[in-house]
Design brief:
Elements: H1 6-9, H2 62-71, E1 78-81, E2 86-88, H3 90-98, E3 105-115, E4 121-133, E5 136-145, E6 153-159, E7 162-170, E8 175-179, E9 206-216, E10 219-228, E11 237-243, E12 249-255, E13 261-273, E14 276-286, E15 291-302, H4 313-316
Antiparallel strand pairs: 1-2, 3-4, 3-15, 4-5, 5-6, 6-7, 7-8, 9-10, 10-11, 11-12, 12-13, 13-14, 14-15
């Protein structure tokens, strides 16, 4: 959550089999309604405008390995599995989440439901495609209905060590627009996800701390606090509940600069499909605006041999 909802919260959802992740060191140890896209056509000029979702899931570079190794025991390790005595640090847990299994490509039809504070609902249908290109992932999304958002498209390419390159195509304009860094905190088509939420965060972008163990929806979890490095996030803190067996994030609370909780993310249903742990139902809620976005998978297929040209700017504008 390939990660079908990567566009919305790549780090949170879908698979978690730990494909090709770096091996950890082990020890024996006893809103209110807004304009649809928040990007006004009047701001678009005839010049080339510059306006996630991706993941690195192959073996990390030597530099990344050294970083993970250095951070491995920044926090006191806790026991991962009593039978084996294996223990992991907070950084190692988040690394296993990041390098989780999700197939080589995926295609899904998804229902999106927007619910305002008065309980009024709006439904959308969209298709999401993802594919691995070596150590990076590219993603493509297209809305099918309703009419006011039909043929709106989104393209994302992962960039190693940098923000993802993101493009939004608006059919009314007949062209795509790149999302620049200063726009990463804007809402994505009036959902409760921002463009930053649609990018997976590499674990080295944050300082992680294990707070405790807890039970969430019947699942044993690690509760981990993540504090972002300077100027790398609109949030000042995230607290996540990580399934101890699947290494999937089941819940995350987001905090603003005043350390107030502003958003809540939840996985409501997760199942193994084609041998991949898949989040079929997720929720993102804006606490202040009392607005909720639900994402429900209607159909998903992994390893379909999706063509490379789907993930190009040319295809985006076709």
């Amino acid at each position: 959550m390939k990660n079908i909802f990567f566009f919305f919260v790549l780090i949170f959802i879908l698979p978690a089999c730990g494909k090709n992740e770096p091996q950890p060191q082990t020890q024996k140890h006893p809103p209110q309604e807004q304009s649809l896209f928040e990007i006004s056509p009047k701001n678009i000029t005839k010049k080339e405008d510059t306006l996630h979702i991706s993941k690195i899931k192959n073996t990390p570079t030597p530099k990344e390995k050294n970083t993970v190794s250095t951070l491995a025991y920044a926090e006191p390790p806790i026991q991962l599995e009593k039978k084996t005595g294996i223990i992991l640090s907070a950084e190692e847990i988040m690394t296993k989440v990041f390098y989780r299994e999700d197939g080589n490509d995926s295609f899904a039809t998804t229902e999106m439901i927007l619910i305002d504070k008065k309980g009024r609902k709006r439904k959308r249908i969209l298709e999401i495609s993802t594919k691995d290109f070596g150590e990076i992932m590219k993603s493509f999304l297209e809305f099918l209905e309703p009419a006011d958002i039909k043929e709106t498209k989104f393209l994302s390419w992962e960039n190693e060590g940098k923000d993802d390159t993101q493009y939004l195509y608006l059919p009314a304009l007949g062209r795509s627009r790149r999302i620049v860094s200063s726009q990463k905190n804007l809402q994505f088509v009036n959902t409760d996800f921002t463009y930053e939420d649609m990018q997976r965060r590499h674990p080295t972008k944050d300082t992680h701390k294990i707070l405790r163990k807890d039970i969430f929806n019947g699942n044993a979890c690690y509760v981990i606090e993540s504090l972002p490095n300077k100027n790398t996030s609109q949030y000042t803190k995230r607290i996540s509940w990580i399934d101890q067996e699947k290494f999937v994030i089941l819940r995350t609370d987001f905090y603003d600069k005043k350390m107030r909780k502003v958003k809540e993310f939840r996985v409501n249903r997760i199942e193994k499909y084609q041998n991949i742990w898949t989040a079929f139902d997720i929720m993102m809620r804006d606490v202040k605006e009392e607005h909720t976005t639900l994402m429900n998978i209607i159909e998903i297929k992994y390893d379909q041999g999706i063509k490379d040209n789907i993930f190009t700017q040319r295809h985006l504008e076709e």
